[in-house]
Amino acid sequence: MIETYYTKEHGYNPFLIRKGWQVAQLNYTPEQDVKNIIRLDRHNLTDEVFILLRGDAVLVAAEVKDNGIEYYMEKLEPMVTYNIPSKVWHNIAMREDCEIIIVERANTHIDDFEHLDLELSEIQNFRKKVIACFQPETKITTNL
User: Splitting the chain (144 residues) into consecutive groups of 10 residues, what average pLDDT does each group show?
Assistant: First the structure.
């Protein structure tokens, strides 16, 4: 009568998909390392909830403007619920051994995502700001 879910596998692992919603575990994967992130994502039909279980991660939201990208970054605290509303560009930078729970609309990982590839100068700026945000007590809002 009690279902239990946990995975040690790297990457995004949806494990509880029910009518209209799903829960997934995102464990560190090299693609989410700050030195490998090259794009932002957004979902048009769902908010996306992040809960840090352990490790270090920086959640990034972004607004694309005529004069560049404005970033909003926050280092996640364990057991705090963070929400990225639908249609907001975002990504998450993770350090090794990081584990995160994600709650969102069912099948978001299959059919509700857009990607925005960052240009080289944007990637360099993004990385610099994320690395700074990994420092304690830092929240960042900046323009390119």
Answer: 86 86 95 97 94 97 91 95 97 96 87 92 94 72 50
Cα–Cα nearest to 38, from 139, 117, 130: 117
Identify the CATH number of the domain in which residue 127 sits. 2.60.120.10
For the chain, the average pLDDT equals 90
Amino acid found at 130 = V
- Residue 77: both structure tokens together: 């605290």
Q: Residue by residue, what is the 3-state secondary structure of 97-121?
A: CCEEEEEEECCHHHHCCEEEECCHH
Within-domain flag for 6: no
Domain count, the chain: 1
20 within a domain of the structure (yes/no) = yes
**Token digits for 40?**
């932002």
Would you say 30 and 102 are in contact if contact means Cβ atoms under 8 Å apart?
no
Question: Quick one: pLDDT at residue 106?
Answer: 87
